[in-house]
Specification:
single chain; 20-stranded mixed beta sheet; two-stranded parallel ribbon
Amino acid sequence: MLHSLAVIRNSQYAPDDTFIKRDSSGSDNMFWGAKVDWFVNDDHKISLFGYSNKSNTQSTSYAFDPQTGEIGEASQSTIRERGGDLKSISYTGNFTDELTVSAMYGKIETDYTNTPSNLDCPTVLDTRSVPANQKINSCGAGGNTGTNQDKNKQTRIDIEYAFEDHLVRVGYDKQERETFHTSAPLTGHSWTYSSIEPNAVINNNDGPLFTNTTGALFDVVADRIFTGGGGFSTDLSAWYVEDEWQVADDLMLSLGVRRDEFENSGVTGKVFSSFKTDIAPRLGFSWDPTGAGESKIYGTYGTYYLPVANNTNYRAASGLSDTTTYYTLVALMHRAPLRVLRRYQVRLLTRKLLTRYLTLPLKKHSKRKKLNPLVKTNIS
């Protein structure tokens, strides 16, 4: 895990100079749903259910002046794909007055993909306390590009059996969650200009990476490359047993247990997390204090286990690379095309510190170009 910490003047989350408009009109944003029940006979029923809540929203970013409330020109549009389709089939059968069996199979596909219209302009943030005309701006809104889609298949079977004062249920369910999630910054880089306070430190996992010993604010440029991802999956299964016991006409107890099993796999298909939970109790009661069926006092107690979210697969087992390179502004010339920069690099896992001299455009970032090494010289 990478940690880069510093005292930075003006947080990157503070600016409110962007106005966003979202348009979800059109036939691509219609919701539909349907359910069909087929009563095979008095004791058996088959049901089909489906819906779609897909939406394609165009999100457009505009320049915004928070002082005057004036909305400027559009900088970028992004298509936000959201929602998905669900389909399921279920069966319910009463084999005797005491025995009922139900089963269900379904799948849902969901999309969370963002597709920017402008792929040539990186994310550029300038949080320094400098006049607006001295801030570094991108040629667009920036952002990330990639795919983010989920598929979830679920199978479930339940059996109910009634005898005397008991209604016993047993069941089993299984889920297969598949995710395909990739991400990369536009043009391959995200840039942040900031000022480090005197004596503030940028830390790596191994300790201080850079300390501002100048006694004044020190401007740096952080180049973050967060990229990677792929396809990965999570398998979930569980069984349960429950007894609803009608102890008396005005008192019912619910006694049950459940056990879950979770298994998470990375992009290589190798399982990196697998465990069975403890047997989890499910206890409850319902009491009618008057016996007239008009009121009740009830309570429940249970232990519940949550599976490892698929986002953990993405973060921990999808081949992500997260590298931040810090450049220091050694010399400053008004609108100069070049800067002599010193490079401090924090690389995930390898933890290397590199130093070299590079050139970097000053005022405007456009399509990413290779940074050419410079001979060490003084620029006045």
